[in-house]
Amino acid sequence: MLSRRQLLKTSLVLAPIVALPQIALAGEPETFAVDGIAIRGADPVAFFTQGGPVMGDAAHSYDWAGATWHFANAENRDMFAADPTAYAPQFGGYCAFAASKGALATSVPEAWTIYEGKLYLNFSVAVRQVWSEDIPGNIALAEANWPGILG
């Protein structure tokens, strides 16, 4: 049972997600990308090797899953190319919390979590905080919703 405070907090975090025109609708690409670039240009391997988002460089890019991925260096690009699913964010890089609610929303690299060896992104740091209150439960919901979200 949620307390009034938790309900208010959750509704304040969810309100911007629900109201945003950036919410993706059925038929969206399998990977969230801005101008064709995944993770807003952040290097997906760096989350694992450097402990957070590091901007990639177009000189070290790799096309996969309908988007161009940028990397800080050739070594990271090659690691990704060898096993993209090991480094790519879950749910196509869309907001993991929105996926748990059966919707798609954009994400930002700053709102990241590595949980059980997988990268998850969220719409904002505030949304990540709410998502983090029940990571296993939210992942289970998102995985159940995911097959049908893209349409």
Written account of the structure:
The radius of gyration is 15 Å and the shape is globular. A two-stranded antiparallel sheet has the order 1-2. Strands 3-4 form a two-stranded antiparallel sheet. A two-stranded antiparallel sheet has the order 5-6. It is built from 7 helices and 6 strands. Mean pLDDT is 88; it is low at 18-26. 42% of the residues lie in helices and 20% in strands. A hairpin with a 2-residue loop joins strand 3 (57-64) and strand 4 (67-71). By secondary structure, it is of the alpha+beta class.
User: Helix tally?
Assistant: 7
Radius of gyration: 15 Å
- What is the averaged pLDDT score? 88
Main beta sheet: 2 strands, antiparallel
Number-wise, the strands total 6
Spell the H/E element sequence.
HEEHEEHHHEEHH
Strand content: 15-25%
What is the global morphology? globular
Q: Supply the helix-strand structural class.
A: alpha+beta
Within the largest sheet, what's the order of strands? 1-2
Oligomer: single chain
Helix content: 40-55%
Distance separating the two termini: 32 Å
Which stretches of 5+ consecutive residues score pLDDT under 50?
Answer: 18-26
